[in-house]
Specification:
Layout lengths: L1 H18 L5 H32 L4 H37 L4 H16 L4 H24 L11 H18 L6 H12 L8 H5 L8
Helix pairs in contact: 2-3, 3-4
Organism: Orthonyx spaldingii
Protein name: PXMP4 protein
InterPro entries: Pmp4 (IPR019531)
């Protein structure tokens, strides 16, 4: 047993020595970025897909589990590919110009976004909308920090909350097809299914009756 462990320990020492080499840092960072993208994508998508699938999707248990696995794989794969592409392009630009500048980040991410997230599907659409909301918040704060717009005298968040909820409910009531399917499902559950019941079972216990009574 001790003889078998010797080559393994030597291999681990060689791998650890390689990881400490500064000249390989950029390439190794790209590889670890791929790893982290895959893991993070799975962690984010799996619980979300689990909840949304069992709440709103019909079908057998096998079909539901398959849907969860497919959504998790797609999110994990896309995020891994994007991080790999972004960090690779960032390293290549920095090497070509001899230094890192802010435009490198923008260009690398634009190319990665086009290549990886350019397909208009439910997973990519959800990710882009998630990012868009945070971009708008970030740009608003940046504009205030840079002095492009004055610092508000009062917290504008209550007004923003009112406008966001007013707009989304108006769209749901009168232009529902413009909203993402998962948001439609959530709002149907909250605002329409709560208008319908037959007895105590589907008033308090269940959302909808499961029998044919």
């Amino acid at each position: 047993m001790a003889g078998d462990a010797g080559p393994l320990r030597a291999l681990l020492r060689a791998a650890n020595a390689l990881l400490q080499q500064r000249r390989y840092h950029a390439a190794l960072a790209v590889i670890k970025g791929f790893r982290n993208g895959a893991v993070y994508g799975a962690k984010i998508r799996a619980p979300h897909a689990l909840v949304m699938t069992f709440l709103f999707k019909s079908g057998s248990l096998r079909e539901k589990l398959k849907s969860i696995a497919q959504a998790t794989y797609a999110h994990s794969r896309n995020l891994a590919y994007f991080v790999f592409t972004y960090k690779g392009l960032l390293a290549a630009q920095s090497r070509l110009q001899g230094k890192k500048i802010p435009f490198h980040s923008f260009l690398a991410a634009c190319i990665g976004g086009w290549l990886v997230f350019g397909d208009n599907n439910p997973i990519n659409s959800q990710i882009i909308m998630y990012l868009l909301s945070r971009i708008l918040f970030g740009l608003s704060r940046l504009a205030v920090d840079k002095g492009y717009i004055p610092q508000p005298r009062q917290d504008p968040f209550p007004l923003l909350a009112a406008l966001v909820w007013g707009t989304v409910l108006w769209l749901f009531e009168y232009h529902r097809e413009t909203l993402q399917p998962s948001l439609q499902s959530s709002m149907t559950y909250l605002y329409e299914d709560s208008d319908v019941w037959h007895d105590l079972s589907d008033f308090l216990v269940y959302n909808k009756r499961t029998d044919s009574k």
